[in-house]
Amino acid sequence: MVRYWLHVADCDECDPEKGIISFKERWKDTLSKVGNGDQVIIYLTRKSEFAGLGTVIDGYSLDERDADNPYKLLLKSVKVKPVKAKSLVPQLSFITNKKRWFVHFNKALYEIPKVDFEQIKTALIKSEKGSREAGEGDEVDVRIERLKREISTRAPTGIKGLDEILGGGFPVNSTILVTGGPGAGKTILGLQFLLHGVKNGENGVFISMDERPDDLRKEALKFGWDLTKYEKEGKLVIVDVSYPRSGLPSQEKYQIDMPFTLDNIVRTVYEIISDIDGKRVVIDSLPAFGLHFEDEAEVRIAIHRLNNLLLSSGCTSIITSEIIPGNIGISRFGVEEFIARGIVLVEIYREGKEYKRAMTILKMRETDYDLRRFAFIIGKTGLEVLPHKVVFFDEAARLL
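The chain above was modelled as a monomer; its predicted structure follows.
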């Protein structure tokens, strides 16, 4: 009797068309139930899509050369085009929690009902057929048109003066690095950007590495921003990392579960973005994120992977970092500025007996921007950039 299986894989460890899928040793008992002729659908977690289809042509085998994933299944693959899982959720009986549907994709291999398998299979084959009929020339045209739209479309920050400097806002589907010393305004800038999106139909995710979520909510109230209101409406999510990484229980609905591993972070962030259809993300801050890795090489790999996740999600994102006093670089790990499509530098400097703030756009893809330093203030309603006030100071005057 043919059985129907769902294989859940990470994008980095599975090529749906390769015909070989790999498993860790703990899946040996489940693999022993898979027989020749059984059918398998492959689901990629970081893309939240069904992406592969095949028939088992050989029972599982052991490859001792692969220490991490020693057990293999050989498939006769069918060429298909990926289908977003969310579009099929209402039709699939094995997904009982329709709102948090992604929680059902938490095992590497499990059996699903035939009727559900056929629903997914039909969608995969139709998608491939439609793509093939469209022709390669049409695909290229569609991609070019999409890129043109992205270039011309901006994600307004809602920060007075900043959108004027940027020609309407940040480029969509890009990662922006906001860097500077403590107290320069990085977190407030990120919150203001996120809330402007939420108020205009773009749901947001704030990943709080340093601050407790309640401290963030109190800080926001100072500017008249009621974060709780948008959280209750399902438009805003604050992910608590500060309590779990300290080994303390968190009362927050959304948090990064321990152990604090890269896979855990990537999976949780992607699930939350998918759950609320997030369009804007703020990660505050990367130095706190980096504390959980043994060396800087691991941190750089983690930052690259996290950035790829955000871009593949179609989000416009802000990541914050900090300048180390006495260091000539503009970030903590020296990689953030290279993966970001935009860099906003915020500084505190001394003018006479007063301390003031300045902002410089050091990099912004697809944007005609000005490299001069502009003054900005943090007032009762948040940040305001003053495009008419250009600032000049030497390094001796810069505090942070």
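Residues 166 and 368 are 7 Å apart (CA to CA).
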